[in-house]
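User: Last request for today: this protein with thymidine-5'-diphosphate, please.
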Amino acid sequence: MAHSILITGGAGFIGSHVVRRFLDAFPDAHIVNLDALTYAGNLENLRDIEDNPRYTFVKGDITDAELVDRLFGEHGFDGVVHLAAESHVDRSIADPLAFVHTNVIGTVVLLHAAKKHWGEQTDGKRFYHVSTDEVYGTLGAEGLFTEDTPYDPRSPYSASKASSDHFVRAWYHTYGLPVVLSNCSNNYGSFQFPEKLLPLAIRNIRDGKPIPIYGDGKYTRDWLWVVDHARAIEVVYRDGVLGETYNIGGFNEWQNIDLIHLLCKVMDRKLNRPEGESAKLITFVKDRPGHDKRYAIDAGKIADKLGWKPSVTFEQGLEKTVDWYLANETWLEHVTSGAYKQYYEKQYADR
Ligand code: NAD
Ligand code: TYD
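Assistant: Here's the final one, the structure of the complex with thymidine-5'-diphosphate:
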């Protein structure tokens, strides 16, 4: 029988890469993408695959229990890859309830439907919850997050994702739902909404606008190319052990200010500007409240157990990413027209 997979949030940044990857990797599978098309969801991210006969898009909300129940009934999903979420820390500080609603309630609605439809027949079934390293809190100068690091979320975003992770594990232990989880570091690459650091900086550098750096810029993140994350999700979906969690990371830590200096150098070269020109746009602004100092992932388990490793260096991934944004100006214009302007003004006005 054909494999039927529900991907939630497939019109977003990572989700669109996952839809593309899964269509390629599972040639017998039908993929249903359930996405509410919030400000972050965009069907332009999926233009190249939208006519694939093995792909169906459903515009809808994961918190709509009736809809989710109906989709399980109609499509007989045997897999769920759950990515739909409110995903931006700054927005979670401004509007935490939206994060609880989608990230917590939405996840529970999906778990509930999977349990109802799968019952005891869980052979070949899989509920994959995609999460973030931010659930582990913040690190000092040393150490890495492992799968055993205690949860210590500190922003409304990370608290909502941590809560959803706990619900997923509760459904595994209580009802035997066949779950698998992964917690990944910061992604970068094509189709990322320009509220996040890298696409926002690329756009501002291109336009000669200030690059806002929060605080002293000495905050550290681990960066992974989104295509490598989508590949890791495929590997965990196929071979991950039920009930287990896999940390995914790029073995690639950068302080924000160093990362932006590297980006400025690449942009100077791409835009034929004298070296040092773009870096003049760097502007230190008021810090994010509760800003986590450092995230760093030990991705040893997925490497050792499932044989996954990043396929590109950061320099290669960054080069591809800059090329993509410079070649896709129309995409960038579309996502930054209208509501983005209001968001940007509000977010950066008093910094
Ligand atoms: P994104 O904000 O780009 O996309 C989220 C998608 O979910 C959008 O298409 C949006 O329309 C959809 N969505 C939001 N609320 C919905 C709802 N109530 N019902 C249905 N659809 C809804 O996010 P992203 O960066 O692609 O992240 C995807 C997932 O990966 C999230 O769960 C996030 O927590 C996790 N993650 C992201 C990163 C990262 O660096 N971006 C890192 C680790 C984990
Ligand atoms: P972001 O891309 O929002 O991801 P996250 O908060 O999930 O790590 O931010 C990455 C880092 O960049 C984080 O330390 C906050 C910082 N940052 C800035 O300095 N300026 C900005 O305008 C933004 C959006 C982020």
